[in-house]
Specification:
The structure is a single chain. This protein is of the alpha/beta class and 139 residues long. The protein is 26% helix and 28% strand. The strands form two sheets. A five-stranded mixed sheet has the order 1-2-3-4-5. Strand 4 and strand 5 form a beta hairpin.
């Protein structure tokens, strides 16, 4: 199994641009599993809950998860990626696991620290394990 990660400097609030940057790199990747950064599409330094809500997306129907699923299907790979998730009036610092078959799972960050507590709700997903065949992904 080939595993990799892609670290880059996402531009805060530039979701479309960040998705294009990641898509271009993943199109060249030769891996079975790639891990992307926490909040990779939105950028990281939220100043308020309102700001996080503006950039948060529903899972699985938001543009970030839809793009990741498309890439995973075409490239026949699994991806783990963090994004701000909107669920009703709540906003979570979440990570998703997608693969060739679509969305496999979501983890909502449980243990928030420092400024994260001003912007996000503590996660309620619990700690999960996903079996992707040659490996198990643990949240």
């Amino acid at each position: 199994m080939r595993v990799g990660f892609y670290q880059f400097d996402p531009q805060f609030g530039e979701v479309a641009k960040n998705l294009e940057t990641v898509t271009a790199k993943l199109e060249q990747a030769d891996a079975d599993l790639i891990v992307l950064p926490e909040l990779f599409a939105s950028g990281y330094q939220f100043l308020s809950q309102e700001e996080a809500q503006q950039l948060a997306e529903p899972v699985p129907d938001g543009p970030t998860v839809r793009r990741l699923v498309d890439i995973a299907k075409r490239r026949k790979m699994h991806l783990v990626a963090g994004l701000p998730e909107r669920s009703g009036s709540r906003c979570y610092n979440s990570a998703v696991l997608v693969g060739p078959s679509g969305l496999l799972g979501r983890y909502r960050k449980t243990h928030l620290f420092s400024e994260e507590t001003r912007c996000f709700t503590p996660g309620d997903s619990g700690f999960l394990v996903w079996d992707i065949g040659p490996a198990k992904i643990v949240s």
